[in-house]
């Protein structure tokens, strides 16, 4: 028996569209400003932002695909496009961060002093634009891993712009060109820390791990507390897509009428939805003292085993 209370999030694409256009504008502005100021830091940041334009494009395409309805083959729909996009964006951002770190080390060894005033002014515009984009995405992501990955890219742009501004001011005041690459390395470390978290969550979804808020022992105990339930086995909890969790289980009942079993099903559905935010619940009921064969066949980790209910 199954309770299908799908709470699929719409995953609004409007914010991603605005972010894509605005970020592309910032990339062009920083490239032009970097060439005019002779600032390698600003040119490097424009390359970083350009890569983020690609990443936002991936996130937008995934968000559109994730809203497609289920088909006969993709019976759960396309929600995992967003998870795949988050994983791809994490890899892309890692590559960009490595490039930034390499360039920063080179500039530490061979420091340059560009036009600090111009680089700070251009970076300030980028900071305001990217900061606005970041706030917009942060308000609308609603736990969507795909949008969170895109938000990380924007956060990296904000930190990068802030580093360029600080570096430009220090260069103007002291002429110390080494401060800019040092700040770039700090930004790279912060970005990597965020990427690791997103990629780990994406991998857990693809591996169909139980979500952290719905640990199997707690779920098993809660189902077992429903009146009429005497046992739970072959319990599986996983995430279909961001914010969309599912559960399947074999539930052993005491001797009940079929109408009472339906009431128990509703109680289990409500408990899973209210306590663990699990909307897709599929339960196979079994009788504790049935006259039929009391040996059932179950599968786990690719192996077939039998269990006795006696």
Describe the structure in your own words:
- It contains 8 helices and 6 strands, in the order βαααααααββαβββ.
- The chain has helices spanning 14-37, 40-66, 80-109, 116-140, 145-174, 179-206, 216-224, 258-276, and strands at 2-4, 229-241, 244-253, 278-287, 295-300, 303-308.
- Helix 8 links the parallel strand 3 (244-253) and strand 4.
- Helix 1 (14-37) packs antiparallel against helix 2 (40-66) and helix 2 runs antiparallel to helix 5.
- The protein folds into 2 domains: 10-206, Alpha-lytic protease prodomain-like (Up-down Bundle); 216-308, Cation efflux protein, cytoplasmic domain (Alpha-Beta Plaits).
- The chain has a 4-stranded mixed β-sheet.
Put the structure in a nutshell.
The protein has 310 residues and is of the alpha+beta class.
Indicate the percent of residues in helices: 55-70%
Give the spatial strand order of the biggest sheet: 1-4-3-2
Backbone shape = elongated
Mean pLDDT figure: 80
Enumerate how many helices there are, as a single number: 8
Q: Approximately what portion of the residues adopt beta-strand conformation? A: 15-25%
CATH fold field value of the largest domain = Alpha-lytic protease prodomain-like
**Do you know the CATH architecture of the largest domain?**
Up-down Bundle
Class computed from helices, strands and strand pairing: alpha+beta
Kindly report how far apart the N and C termini lie. 23 Å
């Amino acid at each position: 028996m199954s309770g299908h209370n799908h709470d699929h999030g719409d995953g609004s694409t409007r914010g991603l569209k605005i972010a894509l256009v605005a970020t592309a504008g910032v990339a062009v502005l920083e490239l032009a400003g970097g060439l005019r100021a002779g600032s390698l830091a600003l040119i490097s940041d424009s390359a970083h932002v350009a890569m983020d334009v690609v990443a936002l494009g991936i996130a937008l395409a995934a968000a559109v695909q994730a809203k497609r309805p289920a088909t006969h083959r993709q019976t759960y729909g396309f929600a995992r496009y967003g998870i795949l996009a988050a994983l791809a964006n994490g890899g892309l951002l890692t590559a960009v961060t490595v490039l930034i770190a390499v360039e920063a080390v080179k500039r530490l060894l061979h420091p340059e002093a560009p036009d600090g005033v111009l680089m700070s002014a251009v970076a300030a515009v980028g900071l305001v634009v990217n900061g606005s984009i970041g706030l917009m995405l942060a308000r609308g992501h609603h736990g969507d891993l795909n949008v969170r990955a895109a938000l990380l890219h924007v956060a990296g742009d904000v930190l990068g712009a802030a580093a360029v501004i600080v570096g430009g001011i220090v260069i103007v005041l002291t002429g110390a060109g080494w401060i800019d690459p040092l700040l770039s390395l700090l930004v790279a470390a912060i970005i990597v820390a965020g990427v690791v978290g997103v990629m780990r969550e994406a991998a857990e979804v693809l591996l169909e791990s139980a979500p952290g808020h719905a640990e199997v022992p707690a779920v098993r105990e809660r189902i077992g507390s429903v009146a009429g339930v005497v046992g739970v086995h072959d319990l599986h909890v996983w995430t279909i897509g961001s914010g969309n969790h599912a559960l399947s289980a074999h539930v052993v009942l005491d001797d009940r009428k079929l109408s009472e079993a339906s009431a128990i099903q509703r109680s289990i559905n409500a408990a899973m939805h209210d306590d663990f935010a699990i909307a897709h619940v599929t339960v196979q009921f079994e009788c504790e003292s049935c006259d039929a064969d009391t040996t059932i066949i179950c599968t786990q980790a690719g192996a077939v085993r039998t269990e006795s209910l006696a």
